[in-house]
Amino acid sequence: MKKIQISPSILSADFSQLGNEIKRLEDAGADMIHVDVMDGHFVPNLTIGPPVIKALRDYSELTFDVHLMISPVHKYIKDFADAGADIITIHPEATDNLAESIKHIKSLKKKVGISLNPNTDVGIIENHLGDADLILVMSVYPGFGGQKFIPEVIEKIELLKKIKDDRNYNYDIEVDGGINFSNSKNVINAGANILVSGTTIFKENNGNIKKNIETLKEV
């Protein structure tokens, strides 16, 4: 089993102190930084774009795990690669040609992530799983932080783990949405090895980020 990694979502950070917040996360033992990019079109919220990611890049050498919730996504991939994204995760619904978008990300020497919304079937991306570095299972409907975990996605995580093992694929399985101390173990046991968390990491135990990261990793 791959080492459990925590990718804190800066969506729950203090946006007036984002650079310092990223430093705090790194010092507390975060494995990577999860950056949610929303366009107000593909999802009902607006967040940040490439200039902010570029500005934040100087604050940490951790992997920037950038989740693009924008449509059409293909024409913006290079902008986020140039800004400093290390993993670029896209939704199959947000591109006219998933294979071409995957190829484009790889050509920019970035890792490829594919995201599945709660109502998106694994079958839609099954032919592309061998080309992915990461599969992001959304356990809430994307758009806003602080939502409740949808337990039905556990079956999807288990299926992705089975396909990975059966076909000897090497993608990471990441889960994002409502992750907390009561459901993290179930998610890990189902096959996930990267957990995204915002509210729990920044708010629990009086904001003790280090303790919260360590607790989420426990199985």
Walk me through this protein's architecture.
- The chain is α/β, with parallel strands linked by helices and 219 residues long.
- It has helices at 18-27, 50-56, 77-83, 98-107, 153-167, 184-190, 199-207, 209-217, and strands spanning 5-8, 32-38, 63-69, 87-90, 111-116, 134-138, 172-176, 194-197.
- The chain is built from 8 helices and 8 strands, in the order βαβαβαβαββαβαβαα.
- The protein has an 8-stranded parallel sheet with strand order 1-8-7-6-5-4-3-2.
- α6 (184-190) links the parallel β7 and β8.
- α2 runs parallel beside α3 (77-83) and α7 packs across α8 (209-217).
Task: Please provide a brief summary of the model.
The protein has helices at 18-27, 50-56, 77-83, 98-107, 153-167, 184-190, 199-207, 209-217; strands at 5-8, 32-38, 63-69, 87-90, 111-116, 134-138, 172-176, 194-197. It is an alpha/beta fold and 219 residues long.
How are the SSEs placed, and which strands pair?
Layout: E1 5-8, H1 18-27, E2 32-38, H2 50-56, E3 63-69, H3 77-83, E4 87-90, H4 98-107, E5 111-116, E6 134-138, H5 153-167, E7 172-176, H6 184-190, E8 194-197, H7 199-207, H8 209-217
Parallel strand pairs: 1-8, 2-3, 3-4, 4-5, 5-6, 6-7, 7-8
Main beta-sheet strand count, sense and barrel state: 8 strands, parallel
Physical arrangement of strands within the biggest beta sheet: 1-8-7-6-5-4-3-2
Poorly predicted runs: none
Shape from CA axes? globular
The SSE order reads EHEHEHEHEEHEHEHH
Mean pLDDT, as a whole number? 96
Radius of gyration: 16 Å
* Quantity of strands, as a count: 8
